Amino acid sequence: MEIAVIGAGIAGVTVARALQQRGFRPRLYEQATALGEAGAGLTISPNATHVLHAIGLADVLPKIGMRPDRGGVRHWRSGELLFEIMRGRDMLERYGAWYYQVHRADLHGALLDLIRHADPAAIVLGHRFTGLEQRAGRVRVGFECGARIDADLVIGADGARSAVRHALFGPTEPKFTGYIAYRGLIPVAALPSREERPTLLYPGSCISIGPGRSFTRYLIRDGGTVNYVGLAGRDDWREEG
């Protein structure tokens, strides 16, 4: 069976690697001309850890991810630790897998390495999807570069504004949840006060909550980088940027 996966983000590379594990030779078609470091931190819950173990990352996750012992919730104004959430070995014993904090680029790169090791030709760059049509039990896929391919199965993994979904079901737009997310990464060494760092960074995964807003932060890359996400309620839609 010839399988085409549109989009080589986390979803695309995960499904492609899972298919390889089961004897298929999928092709990933990615619009970017190069795959570089993109994104920020990700949390990987035990359910996702089970999946990643099954597709070959059991030995890699401990090298690229952090396993916090606990998480916490703080009051937005006072900084008081309202309660703690046990993670670490507690989650391992309860759910059979670890809870990880990882940089998206490290996870993405590890999956790409596995895919390319199994099939060096699996990833096709510079192919922006433009449309598809059903033809005698197969699917013809077109790309902006002029290329055309025929496949038995096409999987759309091309994001919130999926062109594959648009081609199948007509124009659709993501629905605004009413919250904007501000994301970033900061080296721990750049935090202003060395004396306050142990308090600021305890526990290793924490959310501060307040009226209409929250601020989540956790450590990645051997504890050398803080990943943060600030959520703010808004009535107006703002384009990503």
Topology:
Layout: E1 3-6, H1 10-21, E2 27-29, E3 41-44, H2 46-57, H3 61-64, E4 65-66, E5 70-75, E6 81-86, H4 88-95, E7 100-103, H5 104-118, E8 123-124, E9 129-135, E10 138-143, E11 148-151, E12 153-156, H6 163-169, E13 179-187, H7 197-200, E14 205-210, E15 213-220, E16 225-233
Account of the 3D structure:
By secondary structure, the protein is of the alpha/beta class. Helix content is 26%, strand content 35%. The chain contains 7 helices and 16 strands. It has a 6-stranded mixed beta sheet. It has a 4-stranded parallel beta sheet with strand order 8-2-1-12, sandwiched between helices. The protein has a 3-stranded antiparallel beta sheet with strand order 3-7-4. Strand 9 and strand 10 form a beta hairpin. Helix 1 packs across helix 2 and helix 1 runs parallel beside helix 5. The two termini are 39 Å apart.
Shape: globular
Walk across the major sheet and give the strand order: 6-5-14-15-16-13
Low-confidence stretches: none
Helicity, as a percent range: 25-40%
Return the average pLDDT rounded to an integer.
92
- Note the beta-strand portion: 25-35%
Number of strands: 16
The main sheet comes to:
6 strands, mixed
Distance between the termini: 39 Å
**DSSP helical segment count:** 7
Q: C-alpha Rg, in Å?
A: 21 Å
Counting helices, strands and paired strands, the structural category is alpha/beta
Order of helices and strands: EHEEHHEEEHEHEEEEEHEHEEE
